[in-house]
Specification:
Elements lengths: L8 H28 L3 H11 L14 H8 L3 H13 L3 E5 L7 E5 L1 H23 L3 H18 L9
Antiparallel strand pairs: 1-2
Length: 162
Amino acid sequence: MTVSEPSHPAALRLVEMLDLADRAVEACLSRITTSEGRSREQWRALMLLDEGAATDGAEPAGHTMGEIAARAAVPPPTATRMIDKLVSDGLAFRRSDPWDRRRVLVHISPEGHALVTRAALDLDKVLGSVMTDLPAADRLDIRGLLERLGAAAGVLESPRSA
C-alpha cells in the first residue's frame, strides 16, 4: 500500500503556515491580554473601536454592536456583555447615533485608546522587526493576500484598498 500525495499540497502548506502565523500572533497577544486582563475578542473590539483614533484629535466613528460582534467573532449577546465590561472598565462608551437616535454606537475612550497604543508598541517590538526587514511592496502584498483570504473565508467583508 502506498501513501498517496495530498491532492492540494500547496493549499495544505499554506494552511500550515497560516496556523504557524496565528500561533505566533496568539503568543504575542497573550502577553498583552494576560497582563491587561482582556480576552482576544475584547482586543478585536478595541482595535475596531480605535481605528482612526487620535491622529488628528477628532473622535473616531462609533460602531454598531453588529459590527463589533462580527469583528470580535462572537454572537451579538456575547458582544453586548463584552462591551458592557469595556464600558464599566472605562475603555469604551456608548452614544446615540446622531443620524438615528434609536441606534447606539460604541466609541473608544481615551483610556481605551491609550491601552491599544501601549499594546501596539509592545507588538511592534516583536512583530515590527520582522516586517521592517521586508520591502514595502512585499508588506503590501502580504496585507493584500491576507485581506483577500479573509474575504474569501467570509471573515472580512471586503479587502481594503492599500
